[in-house]
């Protein structure tokens, strides 16, 4: 009897994962099958207090477009008698656990887990926040498979999330620098960095729902192809002989070899919301104008810039665009500028 029960449970788990799985082995991070079934965002996205489903999406969706949201908010489909979520949260691809924060009050993410998918090209991370609890064996350094249970969905945070709006906050992205602590110390925030280089201020993200949709529609088969697909809003040249941590961590984003060359600059293509998605090294023999330390705009998309209400890569005030304060902060993290 017990064996038959175990077999049924195992079969049920396989069926569940097959429902969650998209192309390229990608898993949906919660048990809700609504996205895979082609249903509208109202069936899986948790809104803010506004009640507008779009407020739980990625992008300039908060405060009438003035405030940026870095990921997706996914609501639960099962709750206990107290109304608390019981949905499992799953790793979307194989990878290595690189950060676990179990203290809710240490971050606006609450309890959160970061998994680095180091078998992907480029490697990237996924982040799972507001967890009620962290799964057994989910510790830094642990390897997880697609569909591995990371924890239970919840509403933990350094602020109050109502029970009725409990959700998983889900991100896909990259870290800017391994020396985030150096940048953090220079800001003199007056509070401790409890999350090392996996602090949210060191992370930049792509649109998870758009990525999943592109996979489902067969437009792309991996994140590398997706980054090629999304347009660049601006190209910025930074004149330096240094090779940033970002380039070393994500060499697939470099357009041509630079080893053995006299490096003098990097031309960086930024996505609409500030992901440095493409890096072209420039060499001494190319006679680049300017001096080491110079930063300048090479090109930009007026159409995309006009669509931005927040998280601007460039500011459009005046007769021509200027590098925004947010992008300057990103460049300081990337290159260690003071």
Short description:
The protein has 338 residues and is α+β, with helices and mostly antiparallel strands.
Q: What's the topology here?
A:
Elements: H1 2-20, E1 59-62, E2 67-69, E3 72-74, E4 88-90, E5 95-101, E6 111-117, E7 124-134, E8 143-144, E9 149-153, E10 168-175, H2 180-187, E11 203-206, H3 208-216, H4 223-229, E12 232-238, H5 245-249, E13 263-271, E14 276-283, E15 295-300, H6 302-306, E16 314-315, E17 322-323, H7 325-335
Antiparallel strand pairs: 1-2, 3-10, 4-9, 5-6, 5-8, 6-7, 7-9, 7-10, 10-11, 12-13, 12-15, 13-14, 16-17
Quick tags:
nine-stranded antiparallel beta sheet, alpha+beta, Glucose Permease (Domain IIA), 338 residues, 27% strand, 7 helices, four-stranded antiparallel beta sheet, disordered N terminus
């Amino acid at each position: 009897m017990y064996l038959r029960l175990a077999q049924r449970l195992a079969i049920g788990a396989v069926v569940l994962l097959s429902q969650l799985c998209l192309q390229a082995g990608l898993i949906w991070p919660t048990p809700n099958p609504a996205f895979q079934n082609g249903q509208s965002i109202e069936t899986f996205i948790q809104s803010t207090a506004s009640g507008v489903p779009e407020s739980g999406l990625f992008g300039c969706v908060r405060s009438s477009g003035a405030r940026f949201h870095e990921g997706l908010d996914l609501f639960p489909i099962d709750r206990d008698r107290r109304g608390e979520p019981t949905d499992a949260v799953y790793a979307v691809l194989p990878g290595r656990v690189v950060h676990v924060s179990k203290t809710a009050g240490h971050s606006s993410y609450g309890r959160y887990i970061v998994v680095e998918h180091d078998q992907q090209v480029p490697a990237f991370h996924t982040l799972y926040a507001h967890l009620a609890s962290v799964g057994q064996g989910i510790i830094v350094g642990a390897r997880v498979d697609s569909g591995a249970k990371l924890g239970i969905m919840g509403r933990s945070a350094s602020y109050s999330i109502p029970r009725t709006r409990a959700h998983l906050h889900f991100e896909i992205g990259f870290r800017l620098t391994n020396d985030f602590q150096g940048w953090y110390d220079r800001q003199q925030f007056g509070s401790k960095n409890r999350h090392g280089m996996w602090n949210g201020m060191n992370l930049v993200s792509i649109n998870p729902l758009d990525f999943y949709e592109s996979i489902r529609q067969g437009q792309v088969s991996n994140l590398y192809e997706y980054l090629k697909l999304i347009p660049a809003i601006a190209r910025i040249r930074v004149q330096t002989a240094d090779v940033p941590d970002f380039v070393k961590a994500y060499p697939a984003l470099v357009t041509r070899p630079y080893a053995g060359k006299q490096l003098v600059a990097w031309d960086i293509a930024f996505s609409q919301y500030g992901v440095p998605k493409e890096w072209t090294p420039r060499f001494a023999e190319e006679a680049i104008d300017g001096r080491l330390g110079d930063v300048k705009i090479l090109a930009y998309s007026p159409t995309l810039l006009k669509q931005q209400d927040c998280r601007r890569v460039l500011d459009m005030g005046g007769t021509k665009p200027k590098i925004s304060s947010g992008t300057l902060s990103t460049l300081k993290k990337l290159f260690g500028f003071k």
